[in-house]
């Protein structure tokens, strides 16, 4: 392309979409014989002869655009409707990459005159990915099928009977089945990265919940690996006693009619063999997914053969066999074993009237439930799967249904093939009845447990690496891993935990907690699906349709019930550990916004609350101040300080115990299309500053031609329903005369008039620079000059000040300015009674107009009064001269005004008297409140600023308050 593909215009370096604005694009030529033309149409072949590196020339070629409007070098161009939308393939690529979560650096700005290089490098080798069978089904099957089936399941049938054993399998299997349904729904709701259940729970319930449950699940997998290793080693030493190195056995005799010795291998043999086996398994794990997939069938095939031999032996067992207690498939045995036979046993499970353990259905739930865990083995390896949305649901559900069906059939077969005594005394009944090679059962037990250990040692490091990669906890940064690489450091750490537990040798105290961690994870998955399905956000579109929020809720409740059935003590321990991790993450962890379900829940709750508030006025008992903080100062602030520091401190003073919301608003002058990006950056900066000042609030930036128009739009539209701001807070423009800012009076008066029309309360802070922070204690009084009825706003604000640490040592004084000849004592009594009914403690002082006029004015007030008179006279004279010269009525602020000089003098005299009164009674007050006089109609804004300046003269810290047409306090309970 000679210029037809060049892009004219420029953009921002950091945000690519902004670069699109203002560009012109030439149509892209679509050639039938060359597919690469459309994809690489922006590459200039003249820029480089090296096919591996080409440059996109982003400089405009005006000549080519003008000379060839309809033709390019390669021929006539086809009409492209996409040009209307500023079509650019780079924009599409960036958009698609950002949607999948990949971070793509935006191309440099052509505004800088540089070329954009596109390097066509050799693609990186793609890591080996697993399918449904080897990636999910086999790992889940290996984790679920464990030692409990071989050495404990027939015993469970003998203890609980066939009927309650079926109920037990159905009860525990329902929990995992419902969890699988929830897991399938969440896993098919979008692309899934590494971390399995942690990724799902964290993205649904937030980073704190995800990390706390994820770390507990990691510990459960790591310790479970040690438990599986010990089970395999113990079975091996039982089958081959001669393999014992130390050959120390503990021999006991069971308490049944047929006394048989029970031997157990030495603890040191368990430790030595356990460490060696763990190290060998870790070498396999270090080989990566490819090595694991090669080894996994070697562990699984003997297990399958052992199951075939077990069922063959059951079906071929006959009554004439010499084995004691083996009846073959017998209806009499079925009837005899139907009911339960709960009793006391020794620690080895042998019936003993004096045994320490009494078995019940609840106890059997705790014993059997680990036999159905392991459904997360496939999702733990989600980063190694080709298609998580297909493999996880199909593979996990297939493994769950296969094992559950196997357990149900085994209950019927075991209950029919042997007597109850045989079921309760023969720990290896599966080996006793296996045909034709009973020894294969020992091999099946060993390899099934080793396979489960392998899957635990495979999933746990990947889970820890996924948590570390999310960068929530800095302490886990050592376990980070580049995508596609093996988590070697996490594997070392997992192996260290596993070997430590193997050295302990006895996991009876730890194994129940492992089950709790599994159940905690399952409950988290169910709650995640329940929340997402119940809220039904637009982004919730799982491919797996066989789910419902009620099923997820039942699954979560089942998990919690099973936890307490197994052991309430271990349940409390596991929940306490998860809570401690949650607390640690919330304090030390970095914020991660993953669009979790709680955010959606907050949104739904906010909408419901907003609708329930309605559009009617809120009752005074439920009234909260919602201040709109006008951040734009009358003057300039230091660079990178978007708001006056003391405004945030003052906003906090308007809340009781931090409850309430503030809206920080700032206005940027200019055109919205030109300054939209500036507004976004300013809003982000202001939000950061609000968080830094620990002020509950939100930031908003508005672009407007000027401050007056911007504020007028804000006061009309800001907020929703009854959550609109009800108090406008701003700084008093003390600098307007010192800086000779002649535009301030009109803007200031316009803002006050807009608030009056919009029925907003106003609080103007004078002396903001001296406003105390939370550590500066104030003493003295808070003086209120309650001149006009304001709905109790001034009283309420003074009470809110007292709740702050900086003002808690102050006392309130209420000054009531009464009219002449009024009953001052009666007014004082009424105000006291009113304050008493409002539960407010304050001293009441009544100042009547007569005594007001009789007192001597303060010298400072008289000087300010004279200066104001002179300035007003000068300004009035200039107005009259201009009107006579232009032969127009008196004009000020762009509109005609009517000046009554006697009324002006009256206003000046009133503010003089009020200022003198404040200086006389409240010179040492911590804060002074005074009612805000409304701007007089048809008076110039300059005059009103003179009135206000005279009112606030020499008062160091003053709050000027105007209420609105409603009460904010009430006498009634």
From TrEMBL:
Annotated InterPro entries: AA-permease/SLC12A_dom, SLC12_C, SLC12A_fam
GO cellular component: membrane
Annotated membrane topology: Multi-pass membrane protein
Region (Disordered): 1-55
Entry's transmembrane regions: 132-153, 165-188, 209-230, 270-289, 296-317, 357-379, 391-413, 433-454, 489-510, 516-535, 556-585
GO molecular function: potassium:chloride symporter activity
Boundaries of every SLC12A transporter C-terminal domain copy: 645-766, 777-972
Coiled coil: none
Residues of the Amino acid permease/ SLC12A domain: 135-604
A Pfam family reported for this protein in Swiss-Prot or TrEMBL: SLC12
Compartments, record wording: Membrane
Keyword Transport: yes
Family of the protein in this entry: Belongs to the SLC12A transporter family.
Protein name according to UniProt: Cation-chloride cotransporter 1
Protein source organism: Anisodus acutangulus
């Amino acid at each position: 392309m000679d210029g037809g593909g060049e892009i004219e215009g420029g953009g921002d370096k950091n945000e690519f979409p902004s670069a699109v604005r203002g560009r012109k694009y030439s149509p892209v030529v679509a050639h039938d014989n060359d597919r690469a033309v459309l994809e690489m149409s922006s590459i200039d072949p003249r820029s480089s002869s090296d096919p591996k590196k080409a440059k996109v020339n982003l400089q405009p070629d005006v000549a080519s655009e003008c000379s060839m409007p309809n033709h390019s070098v390669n021929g006539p161009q086809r009409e492209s409707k996409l040009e209307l939308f500023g079509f650019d393939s780079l924009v599409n690529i960036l958009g698609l990459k950002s949607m999948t979560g990949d971070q793509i650096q935006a191309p440099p700005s052509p505004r800088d005159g540089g070329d954009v290089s596109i390097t066509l490098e050799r693609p990186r080798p793609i890591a080996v990915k697993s399918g449904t069978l080897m990636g999910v089904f086999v790992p889940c099957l290996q984790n679920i099928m464990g030692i409990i089936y071989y050495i404990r399941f027939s015993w469970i049938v003998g203890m609980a009977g066939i009927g309650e054993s079926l109920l037990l399998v159905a009860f525990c299997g329902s929990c995992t089945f419902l969890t699988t349904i929830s897991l399938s729904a969440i896993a098919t709701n979008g692309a899934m990265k590494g971390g399995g259940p942690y990724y799902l729970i964290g993205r649904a319930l937030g980073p704190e919940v995800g990390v706390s449950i994820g770390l507990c699940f990691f510990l459960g997998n790591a310790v479970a690996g040690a438990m599986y290793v010990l089970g395999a080693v113990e079975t091996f030493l039982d089958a081959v006693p001669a393999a014992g190195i130390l050959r120390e056995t503990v021999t006991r005799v069971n308490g049944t009619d047929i006394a048989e010795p029970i031997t157990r291998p030495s603890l040191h043999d368990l430790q030595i063999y356990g460490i060696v086996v763990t190290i060998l398994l870790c070498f396999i794990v270090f080989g990566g997914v490819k090595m694991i997939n090669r080894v996994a069938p070697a562990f699984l095939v003997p297990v399958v053969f052992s199951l075939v031999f077990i069922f063959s032996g059951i079906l071929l067992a006959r009554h004439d066999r010499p084995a004691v207690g083996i009846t073959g498939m017998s209806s009499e045995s079925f009837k005899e074993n139907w009911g339960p036979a709960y009793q006391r046993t020794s620690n080895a499970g042998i019936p003993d009237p004096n045994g320490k353990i009494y078995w019940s259905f609840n106890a059997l739930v705790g014993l059997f439930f680990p036999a159905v865990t392991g459904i997360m083995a496939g999702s733990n390896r989600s980063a190694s799967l080709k298609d998580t949305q297909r493999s996880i649901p199909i593979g996990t559900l297939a493994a769950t249904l296969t094992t559950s069906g196997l357990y149900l059939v085994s209950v019927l077969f075991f209950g029919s093939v042997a007597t109850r005594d045989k079921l309760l005394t023969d720990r290896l009944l599966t080996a006793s009845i296996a045909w034709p090679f009973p020894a294969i059962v020992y091999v099946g037990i060993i390899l099934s447990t080793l396979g489960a250990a392998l899957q635990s040692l495979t999933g746990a490091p990947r889970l820890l690496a996924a948590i570390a990669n999310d960068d929530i906890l800095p302490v886990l940064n050592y376990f980070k891993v580049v995508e596609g690489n093996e988590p070697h450091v996490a594997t070392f750490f997992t192996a260290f935990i596993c070997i430590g537990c193997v050295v302990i040798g006895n996991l009876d105290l730890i194994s129940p907690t492992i089950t709790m961690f599994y159940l905690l994870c399952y409950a988290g998955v169910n709650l995640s699906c329940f929340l997402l399905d119940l809220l039904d956000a637009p982004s919730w579109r799982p491919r797996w349709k066989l789910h419902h929020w009620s099923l997820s809720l039942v699954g979560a409740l089942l998990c919690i019930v099973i936890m307490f059935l197994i052991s309430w003590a271990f349940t409390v321990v596991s929940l306490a550990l998860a809570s401690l991790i949650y607390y640690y993450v919330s304090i030390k962890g970095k914020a991660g916004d993953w669009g979790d379900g709680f955010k959606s829940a907050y949104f739904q709750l906010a909408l419901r609350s907003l609708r329930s508030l309605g559009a009617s006025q809120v009752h005074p008992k439920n009234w909260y101040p919602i201040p709109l903080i006008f951040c734009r100062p009358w003057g300039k602030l230091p660079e990178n300080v978007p708001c006056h520091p003391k405004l945030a401190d003052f906003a906090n003073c308007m809340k009781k115990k931090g409850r309430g919301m503030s809206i920080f608003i700032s206005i940027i002058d200019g055109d919205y299309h030109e300054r939209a990006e500036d507004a976004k950056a300013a809003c982000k900066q202001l939000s950061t500053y609000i968080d830094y000042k620990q002020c509950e609030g939100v930031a908003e930036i508005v672009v407007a031609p000027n401050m007056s128009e911007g504020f007028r739009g804000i006061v009309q539209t800001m907020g929703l329903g009854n959550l609109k701001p009800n108090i406008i807070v701003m700084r008093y423009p003390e600098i307007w005369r010192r800086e000779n800012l002649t535009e301030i009076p009109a803007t200031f008066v316009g803002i006050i008039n807009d608030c009056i029309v919009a029925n907003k309360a106003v609080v103007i802070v004078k002396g903001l620079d001296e406003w105390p922070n939370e550590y500066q204690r104030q003493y003295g009084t808070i003086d209120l000059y309650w001149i006009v009825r304001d709905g109790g706003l001034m009283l309420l604000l003074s009470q809110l000040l007292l709740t702050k640490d900086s003002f808690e040592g102050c006392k309130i004084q209420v000054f009531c300015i009464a009219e002449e000849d009024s009953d001052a004592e009666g007014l004082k009594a009424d105000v006291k009674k009113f304050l008493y009914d409002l539960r407010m403690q304050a001293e009441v002082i009544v100042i009547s107009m007569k005594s007001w006029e009789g007192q001597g004015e303060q010298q400072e007030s008289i000087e300010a009064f004279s200066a104001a008179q002179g300035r007003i006279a000068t300004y009035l004279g200039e107005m009259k001269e201009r009107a006579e010269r232009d032969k127009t009525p008196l004009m000020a602020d762009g509109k005609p005004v009517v000046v009554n000089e006697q009324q002006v003098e009256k206003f000046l005299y009133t503010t003089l008297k009020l200022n003198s009164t404040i200086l006389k009674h409240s010179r040492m007050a911590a804060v002074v409140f005074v009612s805000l006089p409304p701007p007089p109609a048809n008076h110039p804004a300059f005059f009103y600023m003179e009135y206000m300046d005279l009112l606030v003269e020499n008062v160091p810290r003053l709050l000027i308050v105007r209420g609105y047409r409603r009460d904010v306090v009430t006498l009634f309970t």
